[in-house]
Structure formats: C-alpha cells, structure tokens
Amino acid sequence: MLAYLAGVPLLGLAGCDGGRAFSFSGDLLNPNYSVAHRLRDGWRPPPPEGDPGGRRVVIVGGGIAGLAAAWQLSRRGVEDFVVLELEDRPGGTAISGQDGEFRFPWGAHYIPAPMKENRDLVALLEEMDVIVGRTTDGEPVVGEAFLCRDPSERLCVDGRWHYGLYPDQDATESDLRQLERFQQKMIELAHGRDDRGRRLFAIPMATGSDSAKVRALDRQSMAQWMTDNGFDSPRLRWLADYACRDDYGLTLEQTSAWAGLFYFTSRIPAEGTESQPVITWPEGNGRVVRHLAEHCGDRLIGGQTVVKVQNQGEGVRVEAVDNAMLASVAYVADRVIFAAPQFVAPHVVADWNASGRSINSFHYGGWVVANLRLSQRPSERLTEMCWDNVFFDSRSLGYVTSTHQVGLDHGPTVITWYQPLLDDDPRVSRAELMRLDWSDWARVIVSDLRKGHPDIESLIERLEVMRWGHAMIQPRVGFVFGAEREQAAKPIGRVHFAGTDLSGIALLEEAFSRGVSAANAVVQADPKSRA
Amino acid sequence: MIHRAPNYLLYLNVLVIATCGLIYELLAGTLASYLLGDSVTQFSLIIGVYLSALGVGSWISRYVETRVARTFIEVEIALALLGGLSAPILFVAFAHIAWFRILLFGSVFAIGILVGLELPLLMRILRDHLDFRELVARVLTFDYVGALVASILFPILLVPRLGLVRTSLLFGLLNAVVGLWGTYLLRPLLSQRGLAGLRGRAFLVMGILVVCFIKADTLTLWTEEAILQTPIVYTKQSPFQRIVVTEDRGAFQLHLNGHLQFNSRDEYRYHEALVHPAMTAMVDPRRILVLGGGDGLAVREILRYPSVESVTLVDLDPAMTGLADAFPPLAELSGHALSDPRVTVINRDAFVWIDESDQTFDAVIVDFPDPGSYSVGKLYTTRFFNLLRQRLSDQAVISVQCTSPLVAPQSYWCILNTLRAAGYDALPYHAAVPTFGVWGFALASTRPLKLSADGGPELASALPQGLRFLNRSNLASLFQLPVDVQPVETLPNRLNDQVLVRYYDQEWRSGG
Predict the structure, then answer these.
(1) Residue A14's pLDDT is what?
(2) Which residues of A touch B494 (CB under 8 A)?
(3) For the residues A301-324, what does the mean pLDDT come to?
C-alpha cells in the first residue's frame, strides 16, 4: 500500500496533462460548409442541364424564416413554391436531434408565449394545438403540456444548487433593492408608449418604437446603461450579463442597451408585470420546424447549395448545386425569398454589389452546443433537476434537460449544453472553433458540468459537439438602428429578404415574422400572377 | 535494530504521515464548504484552526519525556481512528446535530494536535541515528513532498474516484498501517509490556476502518436508523428511492426515502378508505387502474370484488412492486395480491404511461406518495388529471390519497381544487389512521357525484365481505368533515406552476 502511494503521484502527474482519454465517445459536428468552401476555393459547378424549373416563388433557406414564408404563402393561396435548403434537414439553428426515445435540441429551444398582437405566430401555434383557447380579453391560452414545467430553472453557486437564476446567496439589502428597482424599471419600460402609441419594445421588434429616445439606447452598451441608471450590484449585473450571453451570445459590455432592455421588457404584457411563460418541447424549436416542414412536403428540398440568384427581366433565375450529386439545378421564379443569413447574400445574389449595400456591421457569433447522453441522472441534494440548469461561475450557459418537458424524472436522459464564444472579433471565435478538437471540447464541457455534478463523468455515455460558426446575429452597440440593417431588409428587384438577422436579434419570433412579411410582400407585389 | 531498517523506509513513513495530515485538512475544508457553503470562509477557517493545532501539538510534544516511540505509535493509532472516521462522522452529524460547527472545528483541532505531535516525536526517535543537520533536512523535505502528493492526489484521484468518505477512511487506514509497522520497526525502543495490546488496538482500528470502507454505501442507512429508532428488517436502494422496512412490536412499517408509507398494524384503515368509496360508486366495476401503490395493499382491497376482471398497477419502481417477493410478510399482508392472474404490473412513470396508454378503466385508485417533490407533484397537476380523463370510462370514479388535511390543509384542498379545475366533481373525505392521524382523500368523477340521504356517497354496489374498518354507516361518516377540516382557498396545481409542492413543503416543515 505504501508503494502504491509512492507510485501514484508520478502516474497522476504524467497522466493529468491533457492526454487523458474519456470512457465515452462522440462526434464533432458542424453545419455543412463543404460546397461553400469548395466554391470559395475556386471550384465551379457544372452548368445546369435541361430547362429550368418554373416556380412562382423560390425560397432560399429552410430555417424558420424560409419555412415561415412557405407557410404564409400557402395561407395566402400561393402553393407553387419550392424551399431550397443547404443542409439535408431543415431548421437552421432550430434543428434538433433524436437518439432512441430521446429528442433534443441542437440550438433554439423555447418560445415565450406570444401575446395576441403577434397574430401570425398565434395562428401557427393554434394550428399546432399548442394554443388551445383564448381568455375573455382575447389573450392566447397555451396548453399546459407545452408550458415549461415547474421547476424551470436553477443556479449553481460554489457547487450548491438553488432554484431561480438570481444569485441570492448572501445578497445584501442594497443588492435586493437594486433588483427590485430594476424589475420596476423594466415594467415601466414595458408599459411605456411612444408618441405614436407604439410599445417601446415589442415582438416582432419592427412593431415597436423607433423614436429618437429608443434609437439612442442602441448607441450605448447595456453595461453603460446599467451604470448610468445606478445599477451597480454585481449580482444584478451578473444576471443581466447572463441574459445577454443567453439570448445574444454577447457580454453586458458588448450588447446594445436596446437589445438588453428588449430582452427584459418585450415579453411583459401591457397590463401585467410578469414576463410571459415559456413554451418548450423536448426537441426545442425543432418541433416548430417539423410542423412547418411537414406542411411543405416535397416542396422542401434538402442538400441544395444555392450558388446564384439573379434578377432576369420578369423573373429571377436561381441556380443550386445538389450537394450529393455535385450537379446543378436551375429554377426560374416570379419572385425569390432569400431566407439565408445576410453574410451569404453578397456571394449569391448577383445584383447585391450593384445595390450599394454593405453588411460590415453584421456580426454573427460562434456557439458550441453539446448533447450528452447520460446513463443516469446526477445525484442531487438540494434541488431537483430543472429544465434550465445554470452555473454561476462559468463561461457556459449551463444545460437544458430534454426529458424535463416529457415528465421523465428518472433514468437515462440527454442534456444539451450551450456556450457562446464571446470574443470581440467573431472571426477569432470561428478560428477557435476550427482549431479545437472533440477531446478539447469534451474536457471543457466535463469540467464545467462537474461544478454542479461531481459525478457527471461516470454518467456520460455519449457526447456530441456541434460547432456553430455563425450561430446568431449579434446586436452589438449601434447595429440594430444602424443604416445597414434597415437597408438589408429592402428587396433587390424581385428578390425579397427574410431572416432573423434583419431584426438584429436571433429569435424564432423574429425569423418567423420576417418570413411571413416577405411572403406577404411577394403576394402583394403580383396579386394576379399565375397561380 | 532500527539502524538496520533501510533509511528510505523511514522517510516513506514521514511521507505517508505528511500526506495523511494534509488530506485530513483538505477533507475538512472540502466538507465544510460542501455542507456549509462559502468555501473561502470555510477553507480559511479550517486552515487556520488546523495550523494552530499543529503548533499546539508540537508544543505538547515536549511533555512526552519517556517512551517516545510508544507515544508515537499511540498517536498514529489515535489519528487513524479520528482522522479516518472524520468525514463519515461529520456527514452523519451534519443532518442530526445543531452544533455541527463545534464538532467540525473540534475534530479539526484534535486531528491537528495529533499531526503536530507526529514529526517532533519522530525526529526525536531518529536523532540518535542521524546527525541533526541531515535529520532536519531529510524529514522536512519528505514532509513537504508529502504535502505536495496529498494536494495533487486529492482533487485528481481521490475525490473523483473514492469520494470524501472513502478517502478519509483510506488515509485513516494508512495511519494505522504506519502505527502497526512502527511496532515492528521501532521494536528495540518498545518495552515488551503492552506491545500485544498496542498491536491489537492497531488491528482493531484497521478492522473498523476496513469495515466502514466496505460499508460506506450503507452509511446513509445508519443515519436513517438513528431517525427511525426501530430495527430495520429490510432495505434496498433502488434507482428511484430508498426502501426501508422496520419492525416494531410485531408490526412492520414501510418507509420510502425516510417517509413512512404504512404500518401493517393499521394500514387496513387507510386502504379500505382509499379503495371502497370508489369501488362501490358504480355497479360491477370490471377494469381497475391503480397508480402508485406498488405494495399491493390497495389491490388486495380491489380483488375483494368478484366483478373485477383486471387490475393494472402502474408503479415507477420495480423494487417496490417486487417488495412482496423480497419481503414475504408483505406478500402475506397483501394476500399475495400482485401474484393474482388478474393483476398486471407496469413499471413506468405514471405521468408518461397515462399519455401512452389507450385503455380505459371503470375505477382508478390514485395512491402516489405525498407531493413532497416536483417529480411527484407533477402527478397532482391539472395536466395529469386531464390526461387521466382519457383513461376513464363514462361512469368511472377515481379516488386520490391527498395527504393530511389537518397538518397540511392548503396541500389537501389544493389537490381537491386541482381536480375541480381539471373538470372533475370532487368530494373530500377523511379517515383516522392511528399511525398517520387524520388522513385525507378525494372521491372524484367527471360525472356529478351525488350524496345520499345519510350524507355519504350514493352506493351502487354493496361493500364486500371481510372489511375490518368500513361498514355502510361509517362509510357515510367519512364524508362528514370535522370542524377543523374545512375548505381553504388555494390555487390549482399546474404543471408550469406547482404551488402544491410549495404548500406541502411549507406545511410539513412547520407542522409535520
């Protein structure tokens, strides 16, 4: 036993410097960029063969915005459309995965219950039987099965879990006073109206105010706004910073005060004081994707890299490469809804450069999302596992539990861990994403989870890591009310734009609304075009 | 003889001693932060107390004038016992005593004194064999190397692999080994008298530590036994809960996670009250669903009705539905109900099963544990009762165990109000169960429930033979609420806002 003791530290020392093997395995995943990178490196697809397919509308991109556009076109009586999606499966950053009986998100995973003013989203959720009725004053009633189950969230500070996200351990009276004053201030801002009667912050954001007072908020950081308003409690600032990292992938210092305040105020009803409850599914917003994709049927074509969109006389020519065949396909459409991110547009939309636009202020943050299959739940002492489980002293956002909403509280599960990369220059983040391998991320993730679950490593059966290079548009200071964003939403000829980045914030509600608006614009532009 | 022992063995001794010493300090600091929170304060206090105790120990060493080697071995054995058992004792004590901090710092101080004694004594033992310069250099070197070993091993290997309790026991064992080995290594310095006793004690301490090391998992059991104060006759830790059966004055009691579920002496009162109001509310109930109730005692009552064709019992835990096999007195008490060919046992979370199933039932007996956690509270939500409606035949009646209306009135009425919010007609009723006191139930149906002239529910079928608690007239009396059990206004328990769990926690913590 003594020899054992003498020998061990040497082994320990030799073994602890990074080369440690894990007892579980998994894959390192990323969105499909192979064709895009081939194009970048000079490869040119063969010219399309045969006559181009004629469509009334071609939708480029099968994320929420593109799928919403398709859904809205149908509602307006336009059925002659096709959705071209780069990936094999639709959804963009709202995709989800499945492993046996478990469904889990790979990105966006909840929607705050919409208020009645958000008519289109309410209609969609009614169609999905998620909204099951109306209150006497017309507000939607969400089915109990879809509202995030109690207990919804908890925070781990110094290895101890507490319900709720505010770090209230040892909070001073001044901390708590500031928290209360902050909440009051948010309610005040939520109830505020500009001189045209618009909410200061509304969802979709385009229906909110753009008065000078509101625009001014976009010119300072959330950190500055909090300082200016006397909110210096470290606990409160942590909470606000967490909110910015969670919703925008930015720190308090990087986030525009408009966006920071939007987060806290836009979900408070005009008459109420509480934020709207949260709608979620085991697979996150993948459920919405599935519903919208089913509606498209075979009009949704995956594995298509759109390489060219060109206005031509009375129509638009669209060329795509079939990722599997590396063969080209061409379409001629009356109109195109370009529902891919803006950073793709200059490379694909032929008239983009001539339109005099720029997108220098469009920054997209890198994210890492991991799904971990656990053989058992970690042992718990002070709380039960929640839907959202957050670590106080961490760069990660913690994890959500996929089985929480199903009601399974025992046995194996899949948890989804999130971390935005917070570099000031997102290109640095993307370089980091490409540089680190699976075991690097496994080490980061395991040591993060260990803060709240000392036994986690022995429970992991599989760990899959998704690297999102351009996960989210970032509402940095000055972007949301900058000229570039407002310009980007305008059509170029018969090419209309959709996408959450046009709103400056990455939210399902915004993507959905942009898709619906683009569809409406297309229908209104040529109401009597061939059906 | 000591000069014949290779020197490195002596230094290995120092190394082990030093490692053990630092491990105890790290254990105490980790445990204190783990249990009390605020790691900066805990570590800082523990280190301070420990270091000062080292000084005290060193000072005390000057009073050891004779029999230095023997004292050294005594110190090792004492340290083995005290240090080795420190983590398990502190874990157990945390749950039970108000003055945990005093015990914590007391044990850290005591361990510190013993560790402080070690090196001065050892150096005095060795001083005749080495010159002073060499002695100090070597002993202190190995002392500090030991500290390094401990600080590296502790986070990398010990805590993740062994856990705090087993780490503590392992290093106690090492101290004991050093002590025992010392009786051979330092044999020339020891008198024959008492040598066997010394070795005997070393072996005894090692034995205790080894047993604890093997039994570390059942540590929680001892703490439970301390609370229960009755002999434990059966125990099993399932993935879902800890099942404990105790025996007291010829009867046995089932505890799940430390909560008493029934006492075989008076459980018939509870189960007759739970089952028969629902079963007699319709003519010839045929298909019956039992949710929870894996002990089979509710099924025993159901099987008294000849009309029953099938009983489906859904209970999360196979260890619970298998308890009658593992613990025969329960099989006897339940009349071997779960072995009846009419009974089907399904081990699934009822919340998930109720949505997956497509069967319908004439009567449902809901016998879940009390809503003391969110994972149980979900089974008392409007969502769950709405899902349950889909499993009911047109005339179906359900009964629900609803905790004590006397101890936890808000919880009790919250369950009634939740049933009503989910569209049920619900009648409150109660029964006296000596082990629990006044217990509350709900009789509910999606059709209106009528009361008969005697104030009880309308009976469509007669009560079966062989009941010990209920007859026609006192069944009605269960539905007469005493003055101290009157309706309270509460919110309904919703899946996204489980007020019931918070009511329950509040009421049982203050009143239970």
Answers:
(1) 36
(2) 144, 147, 150
(3) 93
The average pLDDT across B261-274 equals: 96
Q: Clarify whether B143 is annotated catalytic.
A: no
Compute the count of residue pairs across chains A and B with CB atoms less than 8 Å apart.
Answer: 90
Beta bridge partners of A309: A318, A349
Is A356 contained in some domain? yes
Task: Give residue A292's pLDDT.
Answer: 98
Q: Is the pLDDT of residue B34 over 80?
A: no
pLDDT at B447: 93
Residues A221/A226/A229/A234 CA torsion (nearest 10 deg): -160
pLDDT tens string B155-188:
888 876 777 788 889 999 999 998 898 888 888 8
In this prediction, the answer to ipTM > 0.95 reads no
pLDDT digits (tens, 9 = 90+) for B364-380: 999 999 998 999 999 99
Q: Total domain count for chain A?
A: 1
In a domain, A123, yes or no: no
Fold of B2-218: Growth Hormone; Chain: A; (1.20.1250)
Q: Which residue has the tokens 């125990």?
A: B235
Torsion B92-B93-B94-B98 (CA) sign: positive
Is B401 in CB contact (< 8 Å) with chain A?
Answer: no
| Residue A375 touches partner B, C-beta closer than 8 Å | no
Pairing outcome for strands A460-473 and A28-29? parallel
pLDDT value of position A11: 36
Domain assignment of residue A74, yes or no? yes
Kindly report, as residue ranges, where domains of CATH 1.20.1250 are found in chain B. Answer: 2-218
CB contacts of A277 in chain B (<8 Å) are 496
* C-beta separation of A138 from A358 below 8 A: no
Q: What CATH number is given to the structural domain containing A87? A: 3.50.50.60
Does the CB of B144 have a partner CB in chain A at under 8 Å?
A: no
Q: Which are the contacts of B431, defined by CB distance < 8 A and separation ≥ 6?
A: B269, B270, B272, B273, B438, B439, B441, B469, B478
Which residue spans of chain B are classified as CATH 3.40.50.150? 265-511
pLDDT of A7 higher than 50: no
Where residue B511 falls among pLDDT bands split at 50, 70, 90?
A: low
**What is the per-residue pLDDT for A466?**
96
Whether B382 sits inside 8 A of A144 (CB atoms) is yes
Please compute the mean of the pLDDT values over residues A264-270 and round it to a whole number.
94
> Given A12, A145, A384, which is nearest B152 (Cβ)?
A12
**Which has more confidence, A445 or B244?**
A445
Nearest alpha-carbon partner for A486 in A398, A358, A338? A358
Cα separation, A454 vs B167, whole angstroms:
15
Q: Which of A 447-506 lie inside 8 A of B, CB atoms?
A: 454, 457
Whether cis (ω within 30° of 0) applies to the bond prior to A204 is yes
Asked, for residue A65, whether it belongs to a domain, the answer is: yes
Which residues lie below 8 Å from residue B55, measured CB to CB, with a gap of 6+? B116
Confidence of residue B473 (pLDDT cuts 50, 70, 90): confident
| CATH class, B265-511 region | alpha beta
Q: A414 to chain B, minimum CA–CA distance in Å?
A: 17
Q: What is the mean pLDDT of residues B265-279?
A: 97
- A6: which chain B residues are within 8 Å (Cβ-Cβ)? 12, 15
The tokens for B232 are 């434990």
Q: Which domain holds residue A74?
A: 34-97+284-362+476-525
User: What average pLDDT does the segment A463-483 reach?
Assistant: 96
Residue B397: per-residue pLDDT: 97
Q: Is residue A15 over pLDDT 70?
A: no
User: Is residue B115 within 8 Å of residue B24, measured between CB atoms?
Assistant: yes
Residue A348 contacts by C-beta under 8 Å, 6 or more apart in sequence? A60, A306, A307, A308, A309, A338, A340
Report the residue of chain B nearest A452, measured CA to CA: B34
Q: Does the beta-carbon distance from A6 to B15 stay under 8 Å?
A: yes
